[in-house]
């Protein structure tokens, strides 16, 4: 099958402009800069094209996604001309909003019309089914009637017993042939039916003088239409051999002057066994020699392999059983007084041979198997989505608590595709790769969120290595629903978007809190990234100040709170960056003043007791 988008005709043309869509590829619907006519391209040029939408084609169909424009889809309720969108009776349209934080797609159908808000032109989706041709089984092929090399069909009078036994021709249907030059003239309205009998048994070896005299009176130059009458075959001097299925005299080859087959002269036991279907001849009513006009009734059964017996007694008994079994199938044909050639032809009944191909499937079974295989293939293909390729600057990837370390195959793949591994976010990092499953509040993570750097899991690099090219980043965002609930934030809200919640604020860290960080310079870098200043000395009340302390055990905490400063824990900084906003009125991270005063009192009492123990009495 194939999908095509049809656009308006070009100037000077009446047919729609086709845009073929390739399977497993992304087609971009673009509006060239300075033009009002949309087009479909496979390679997007950011400086020359405005991408309105994109179409992805797979075995499951074609899906449409709006990128930078609002798309309207006119559903295909009836088949109309692609150029008749202006007068289409369908009025219900589905509006597809442009991509924002989330994206929406729709599966297209045949004859869906796509219109745009930024262009007056429209595109029509067209689906063309692929043609499937199934060759019939060789067992079901009926042998065609043999044709002469000059293109002349063989006439019934030309059929003899000397023809190839394997090429038995049975006319299953009567067809009117076009006039062709014939060696023997035929009647104008005569229907040609060819019945070819397979000679499986020997004829009578001896013929009485009376029978020979009768045959001499006949014109032997004419084609023999049937065997002699049963009246002469019952002569007392004639002893038929076993398995003689035709009540005739000598072989027609001898009567017509044709050399007989040498196998006919051999004894019965020494003749080669030929496994061919034996015809069943239904006898007609006995007549005088002058009324020898009747035709035999021939039935050709299914091929059965029958071996000859070596004993004459067994042959006689088998012949009796065969005749007894066939007696119920014989029919008598009564010839009317107005016998003619047409009436004789109409009395011939031919049953076509039924053949069964061993080890081969019937043709009727093929569509079912094919349909079942197609359904299973479609179900497996629906689960596989077409992964989008990475589109952006050269990847400069930093790793934070990642399982990918050292010179692994993933790192080699990244470098092979011009990617660069950086140590810190400040080294022009544009992708942060973290361990899959959980997030750790590292300085790299906080700084990446503050700068709007996309964060992906290790699976992005591993899947890209399997695909052979870098994949899109959005599909490999970390999934941390448990931590989102614990920290009360949404990663999708801040993913890839710069955050500056502390813009205009000054942050003061107590000495105890400064010592708790392994590298306080990284914290200063994070604060500057989110728009805050770090106070190097004791702040004044006039500033827009945020005081962060280590906790209720901080020594400076009590003094700051006695001076009227509100103090918070260090989680205020990290969680505000994750949430993209700061809330100083909430008591979630605010340190309790009562606990701080009791801690300070306990510290003073401890110092006083030490002083008393050190005095001399």
UniProtKB/TrEMBL annotation:
SUPFAM superfamilies: BRCT domain. Pfam families: BRCT. Keywords: DNA damage, Nucleus. InterPro entries: BRCT_dom, BRCT_dom_sf, DDR_Transcriptional_Reg. Residues 412-478 form the BRCT domain. The keyword Transmembrane does not apply. Residues 215-225 have a biased composition (Basic and acidic residues). Its main location: nucleus. Coiled coil: none annotated. Residues 176-318, 356-389 are annotated as: Disordered. It is found in: Nucleus. GO terms for biological process: DNA damage response. PROSITE patterns: BRCT. The keyword DNA damage applies. GO terms for cellular component: nucleus; site of double-strand break. Residues 187-213, 373-386 have a biased composition (Polar residues). CDD domains: BRCT_MDC1_rpt1. PANTHER family: PAX TRANSCRIPTION ACTIVATION DOMAIN INTERACTING PROTEIN, PAX-INTERACTING PROTEIN 1. This is BRCT domain-containing protein.
């Amino acid at each position: 099958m194939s999908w095509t988008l049809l656009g308006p005709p070009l100037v000077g043309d009446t047919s729609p402009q086709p845009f073929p869509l390739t399977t497993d590829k992304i087609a971009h619907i673009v509006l060239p800069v300075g033009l009002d006519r949309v087009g479909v391209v496979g390679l997007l040029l950011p400086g020359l094209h405005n991408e309105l939408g994109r179409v992805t084609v797979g075995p499951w169909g074609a899906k449409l996604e709006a990128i930078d424009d609002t798309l309207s889809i006119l559903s295909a309720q009836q088949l109309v001309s692609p150029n008749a969108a202006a007068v289409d009776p369908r009025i219900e349209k589905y509006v597809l909003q442009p991509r924002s934080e989330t994206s929406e797609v729709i599966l297209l159908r045949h004859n869906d019309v796509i219109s745009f808000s930024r262009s007056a032109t429209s595109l029509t989706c067209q689906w063309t089914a692929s043609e499937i041709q199934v060759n019939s089984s060789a067992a079901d092929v009926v042998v065609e009637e043999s044709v002469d090399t000059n293109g002349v069909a063989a006439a019934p009078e030309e059929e003899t017993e000397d023809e190839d036994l394997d090429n038995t021709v049975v006319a299953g249907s009567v067809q009117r042939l076009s006039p062709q030059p014939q060696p023997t003239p035929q009647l104008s309205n005569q229907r040609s039916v060819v019945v070819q009998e397979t000679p499986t048994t020997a004829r009578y070896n001896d013929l009485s003088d009376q029978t020979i005299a009768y045959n001499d009176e006949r014109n032997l130059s004419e084609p023999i239409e049937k065997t002699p009458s049963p009246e002469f075959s019952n002569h007392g001097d004639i002893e038929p051999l076993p398995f003689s299925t035709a009540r005739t005299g000598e072989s027609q080859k001898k009567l017509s002057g044709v050399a007989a087959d040498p196998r006919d002269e051999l004894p019965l036991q020494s003749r080669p066994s030929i496994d061919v279907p034996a015809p069943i001849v239904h006898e007609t009513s006995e007549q005088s020699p002058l009324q020898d006009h009747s035709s035999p009734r021939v039935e050709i059964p299914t091929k059965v392999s029958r071996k000859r017996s070596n004993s004459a007694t067994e042959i006689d008994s088998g012949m009796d059983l065969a005749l007894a079994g066939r007696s119920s199938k014989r029919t008598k044909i009564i010839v009317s007084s107005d016998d003619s050639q047409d009436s004789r032809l109409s009395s011939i009944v031919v049953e076509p041979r039924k053949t069964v191909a061993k080890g081969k499937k019937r043709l009727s079974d093929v569509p079912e198997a094919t349909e079942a295989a197609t359904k299973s293939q479609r179900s497996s293909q629906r689960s596989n989505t077409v992964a989008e390729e990475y589109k952006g600057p050269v990847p400069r990837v930093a790793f934070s608590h990642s399982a990918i370390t050292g010179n692994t195959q993933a790192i080699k793949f990244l470098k092979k595709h011009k990617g660069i591994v950086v140590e810190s976010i400040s080294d022009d990092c544009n992708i942060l790769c973290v361990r899959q499953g959980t997030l750790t509040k590292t300085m790299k993570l906080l700084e990446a969120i503050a700068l709007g750097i996309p964060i992906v899991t290790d699976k992005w690099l591993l899947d890209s290595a399997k695909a052979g090219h870098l994949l899109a980043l959005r599909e490999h965002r970390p999934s941390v629903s448990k931590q989102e609930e614990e920290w009360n934030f949404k990663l999708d809200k801040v993913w890839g978007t710069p955050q500056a919640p502390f813009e205009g604020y000054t942050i003061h860290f107590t000495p105890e809190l400064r010592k708790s960080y392994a590298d306080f310079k990284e914290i200063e870098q994070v604060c500057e990234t989110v728009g805050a200043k770090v106070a190097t000395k004791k702040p004044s009340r006039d500033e827009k100040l945020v005081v962060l302390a280590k906790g209720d055990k901080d020594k400076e905490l009590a003094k700051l709170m006695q001076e009227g400063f509100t103090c918070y824990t260090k989680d205020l900084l990290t969680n505000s960056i994750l949430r993209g906003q700061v809330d100083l009125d909430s008591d979630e991270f605010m340190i309790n003043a009562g606990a701080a005063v009791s801690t300070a009192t306990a510290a003073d009492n401890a110092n006083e007791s030490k002083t008393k123990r050190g005095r001399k009495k």
